C-alpha cells in the first residue's frame, strides 16, 4: 500500500497555503512534515485526510482499492477532542464507534497508561493524559494510515517513548505514518518533507 499526494495546491481564505506539494509514503514507512508556523503543515494533513478540498492535485492510496482513501486514514489533530463530561472510557468508546473500530477499550487504555482512569471524567485529565487518550484511539480503531499533527504535544519523556513505540509497532505491521512536527521525533529512518513559509500571493490567474 502506498499513500501518494501529487501537486497539491490548497487555499485558505482565498490565498494559497500549499503550492505544488507532492510526496509518497509506502507501507512500513514514515514521513516527517516540518517547516515554520504558517507553512501549511496542518493544512496538508487535513487535505490528505479529505477534510479540505485542494484547488488542484490529488491524494490517492495505491494497492488498496476496496476503500475510499479517507476510510483508511486516522487523523490525530493537535487538539485532543476530549469531551470533559464523559468518562475516559466513554470518550474512547465514542471515538471508536464513530470511526467504525472494534478494538478492545480496556486494552487500548492500558497500552497508553490510562488503565486505572477509565471511570474518571475527561475534564480532570492533565494535558499529557488527554494526549494519551487521543493516542488510544489509534489502537481502538486501527487504520493503516496515521496522520499525526504535532503528536508529541504535551507528552513528557515517557509519553514520547510511548508514541515512538506505537509508531514502531504500527509500521512493523505494515502501517504508514505522516507526522507534522516542530520537534524532533527520534525516528531516524523517517523521510522529511520540508514546507516553506506561507505563500502571500493571491490565487488569481491559476488555470
CATH architecture: 3-Layer(aba) Sandwich
Fraction of helical residues? 25-40%
CATH topology name = Rossmann fold
Helices and strands: which structural class?
alpha/beta
CATH homologous superfamily, by name? Answer: P-loop containing nucleotide triphosphate hydrolases
Number of strands: 8
Q: Element order, helices and strands?
A: EEEHEEHHHEHEE
Strand order, main sheet: write it out.
Answer: 5-6-7-3-8
Q: Tell me the distance between the termini.
A: 32 Å
Question: What does the average pLDDT come to?
Answer: 89
Rg, Cα atoms, Å: 17 Å
Helix count, per DSSP? 5
Estimated share of beta-strand residues? 25-35%
Low-confidence stretches: 198-207
Described by the principal axes of the CA atoms, the overall outline is globular
Largest sheet: 5 strands, parallel
CATH class term = Alpha Beta
Amino acid at each position: 500500500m502506498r499513500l501518494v499526494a501529487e501537486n497539491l495546491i490548497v487555499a485558505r481564505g482565498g490565498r494559497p497555503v500549499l503550492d505544488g506539494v507532492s510526496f509518497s509514503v509506502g507501507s512500513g514507512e514514515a514521513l516527517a512534515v516540518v517547516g515554520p508556523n504558517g507553512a501549511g503543515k496542518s493544512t496538508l494533513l487535513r487535505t490528505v485526510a479529505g477534510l479540505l478540498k485542494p484547488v488542484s492535485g490529488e491524494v490517492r492510496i495505491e494497492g488498496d482499492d476496496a476503500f475510499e482513501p479517507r476510510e483508511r486514514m486516522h487523523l490525530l489533530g493537535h487538539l485532543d477532542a476530549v469531551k470533559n463530561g464523559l468518562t475516559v472510557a466513554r470518550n474512547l468508546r465514542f471515538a471508536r464507534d464513530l470511526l467504525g473500530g472494534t478494538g478492545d477499550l480496556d486494552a487500548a487504555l492500558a497500552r497508553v497508561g490510562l488503565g486505572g482512569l477509565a471511570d474518571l471524567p475527561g475534564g480532570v485529565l492533565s494535558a499529557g493524559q488527554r494526549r494519551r487518550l487521543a493516542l488510544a484511539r489509534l489502537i481502538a480503531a486501527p487504520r493503516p494510515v496515521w496522520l499525526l499533527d504535532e503528536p508529541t504535544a504535551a507528552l513528557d519523556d515517557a509519553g514520547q517513548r510511548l508514541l515512538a513505540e506505537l509508531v514502531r509497532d504500527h509500521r512493523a505491521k505494515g502501517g504508514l505514518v505522516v507526522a507534522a512536527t516542530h520537534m524532533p521525533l527520534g525516528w531516524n529512518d523517517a523521510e522529511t518533507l520540508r514546507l516553506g513559509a506561507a505563500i502571500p500571493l493571491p490565487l488569481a490567474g491559476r488555470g
